[in-house]
Amino acid sequence: MRRTTLSVLVVALIAALVGVALMPRVPRLGAQTTGDRDLAAAARSATPDPSGLRGLAVALVENGRIRTAGLGDRDLAGRPVEPGTPFEIGSVTKALTGMLLADQVAAGVVGPDDRLGSTWPEVTGPARDVTLAELASHRAGLPRLAPGSPLAWARILWSNVSGGNPYAGQGVDAVRSAADRVSTDDDERGEVHYSNLGPSVLGHALAAKAGVAYPELLHDRLLLPLGMTATIVATRDDELPADRAQGSRAGGRPLDPWAGAGYAPAGAGPWSTAEDLGRLLAATLAGTAPGADAATARYREDDDTRIGYGWFTTRHGDREVVWHNGATGGFRSYVGLERATGRAVVVLGNTDKGVEPIGLRLLGVPPNEADSATSMVLPWIGAGLAVVLTFLGGISLLGTARRRQLDQVTLLAAAIWAFAYLGLGHRLGDWSVVPAWLWPLGAGLSAAGVALAATRWRALPVVDARVPWRRLLSVASSVGTAVLAVVAVAG
């Protein structure tokens, strides 16, 4: 017994030491600086915790003047972020789609109270009765995402595990079909409930009315007049910017960029730069941007926040900030403006760590209020995944290896799951919140389970069950799922 215990401990120690070399490497905002150095210094001062960030692009508008800077690394190769480096902007695009609505209203093409069905006649389901203004302000009673089949949800889950694009293959027809299938919630209609489906439907409806695709409408009506030449909508992978930033999790895991036509008006596919978005904000403050009226608050979300067409307006103490943020797989973005001071800010990051506090601090919002702008729900979910997945497999394997009634197929399945869980913890956990040295401890625990299992292996029957084929089928399905998880981790 002592010899077995000693062997298990030695194996665990060796595995933990190996795990140190393989443990997650959390990025940290690099020292490289480009552009306006004073602005870069201010952005660093506004970043209380650089852990979990790799690079930032920032713009600050003051008295009509636009200053830009790049901080840190744009990719794993260590190339510096520049003010003109393209980043995924995610849901900041919803504000642009809202501006398209305001622009088309001003041009007399549509009215805010026009029904979706009259603007996009191909939509024939219940959603055809919602108004364009309701779609732009998240008040149409539509769900956050389109209702999908189990296969569609499995694809989304797989993309989260593998780091792929959850919107791949979803074109305009998929969004229109979703609008036909979905039923509006009359109890929620008229109230603000954030939706990705609503702005997507709105963008394509406006484009259909104009007889063009959404990227063309956005370019012609908003980007071209403002000189936003670096802002694009990537509907396919071959349209991605060549000099783009590389996105990753705050824990360091690289992620695939998002590209697609269907949810582009809501933020899946658009890329922009701090320079371009600075131009947008400067023109919006001046009232000269096409559809600038979209930033006017019209409807109340709660005591502190109202919404216009895509743009939110939130009170921070005695300050009122008009803003939108964005989040894709490996990027975060924030744009905000304060009419009272004539200041505006852009912050783009290439990890999934929120950048809202940086933007608010640059606008002069007190740190305590600025830091509360990022919800702590998602970071703590990532932290929970890191801890649970890292230790769950090893604990389960040790428990299985100590059972009296045991067979080889059960033990083998438990061993495979131990390392599958360990790999999932490495890839899905938010290691910018949880100490990365916990992962080698989990590796040691899993290795200890394997070592203990090895001491019992020869004495165990292959299958210990009254119905062997049923036991084998159960274990085979479990192992198959674990193998899929390992493939996702390895990919």
Strand content: 5-15%
Helix coverage percent: 40-55%
What is the tally of helical segments? 16
Question: N- to C-terminal separation?
Answer: 40 Å
Strand order of the largest sheet: 1-3-2-12-11-10-9-8-7
The largest sheet, given as strand count, sense and whether it forms a barrel, is: 9 strands, antiparallel
If you average the pLDDT, what whole number results?
Answer: 89
Compute the CA-based radius of gyration.
Answer: 26 Å
Q: What is the count of β-strands?
A: 12
H/E element sequence: HEHEEEHHHHHHHEEHEEEEEEHHHHHH
What is the global morphology?
A: globular
Structural class: alpha+beta
Which regions are unreliable across 5 or more consecutive residues at pLDDT < 50? Answer: none
3D architecture notes:
The structure is a single chain. Helix 1 (about 1-20) packs antiparallel against helix 15 (about 440-455) and helix 3 runs parallel beside helix 8. Helix content is about 45%, strand content about 10%. It has helices spanning about 1-20, 35-45, 90-105, 115-120, 130-135, 150-160, 170-180, 195-210, 215-225, 275-285, 355-365, 365-370, 375-400, 410-430, 440-455, 470-490, and strands at about 35, 55-60, 65-70, 85-90, 230-235, 270, 300, 305, 310-315, 320-325, 330-340, 345-350. The strands form two sheets. A nine-stranded antiparallel β-sheet has the order 1-3-2-12-11-10-9-8-7, sandwiched between helices. Strands 4-6-5 form a three-stranded antiparallel β-sheet. It contains 16 helices and twelve strands.
